[in-house]
Amino acid sequence: MRVSSFGHAALGACAVFALLEGCSGTQAPIGAPGAVPQASTFAPRTTTTNYRVIYDFGEAPDGSYPTARLIDVSGALYGTTAGGGSNSCAYYPYSPYHGCGTVFTVTPSGTEKVLYKFGPAPDGSVPYGDLLDVSGKRYGTTVYGGAYTCGYPSQPFSCGTVFSISTSGAEKVLHNFGHGGDGQYPVAGLIKVKGTLYGTTSGGGANYCASSSYDIRCGTVFSITTSGTEKVLHNFGKGTDGTTPLAGLIEVNGTLYGTTKYGGKHGFGTVFSITTSGTEKVLHSFGKGTDGATPLAGLIVVKGELYGTTENGGANTCGGSSDRYSCGTVFSITTSGAEKVLRSFGRASDGYSPVAGLTEVNGTLYGTTYLGGAHAAGTLFSITTSGTEKVLHSFGSSSDGRLPYAGLTDVNGTLYGTTYTGGAYNDGTIFALKP
After folding, report:
1. What is the pLDDT, as a whole number, of residue 49?
2. How far, in Å, CA of 432 to CA of 435, rounded?
3. Of 32, 128, 281, 328, which is the most exposed, with the fewest CB atoms less than 10 Å away?
């Protein structure tokens, strides 16, 4: 079993990029920057039955490299891009972003508008997580940016933020991570429970996961009010606890559930529960036998049971002869911790490496794989709760999108999503598919 993009010995700023794309560049191949688009709307391109690209991201001032799930607010879709925009942010040399990132809105027919361009510090930069709509205002996180620096002493990075933004594009930093024993580098978005927001940070907190001289810490769960009062609820990393949560949380009957990419009994991640007061419990440790490994995505709940994906693990192997690794899984788990692998990816022209979570529509689960498929650029699939899977679209043909990183959003029976690269400018796309 191979961890495809990050090892416990990874250090400094490279560690954070490796969590997301891989410092070697092998996990997320980045194409050359595209030309600046001349208009904000592109004619939809049909590549397979019921599938169409509705928007192609371009270089600055447009966004590029979308990683977050879209949200539907009164018929309009909102999302973020990790790169693009008109502001320049200096990052580790392997960074592909060409800008600090954006918040955008797009209609289901493909008319896109950039609402806000991040950066440079002390503003936030590189928003990876989903947005959250609360009373007409959007809340989110940025991996970098803010007032404080973390990581390599010789290559300090700003530690990330929580922000709010209005529908007209007025942005406000609510919290700057990285001060004292606070969390660092929030990759995931937020959820709301009884008026309070909850989230995770991939680093920071009280416990170390690597050499203390490099300050690589194991991550946190935090709460924050909509006015910006933040509190660390749990510090990951003690004993067989999970480490490095890249996913957001869900709430089921007042308890929060999530995943960590690493840690646990076998070192390949966990599913955990945590109360809103901070009492955490590991429900499952990944990585034993043909179990899944290294979950990047969060969970969904369907009829009281939790479902999710793991980037690695499972019964099948993928990759070249010199670099073979397990292909990832879909799993179910009860709130008491009984886990079951429903699907091991990687057979024939199946997809593999699902880094996004699942979406449920009328009892069927839908998701994406980052790699694999007929064109080796990822797939969109359906799977029943009993484990019957079907590839609905293989990305990567012609000027189609490539490498879908984010999950899907159901709007009146049509699924909307994004791809990290590909499209007319190779900076990512927004697509729609009607199952």
Report:
1. 63
2. 10
3. 32
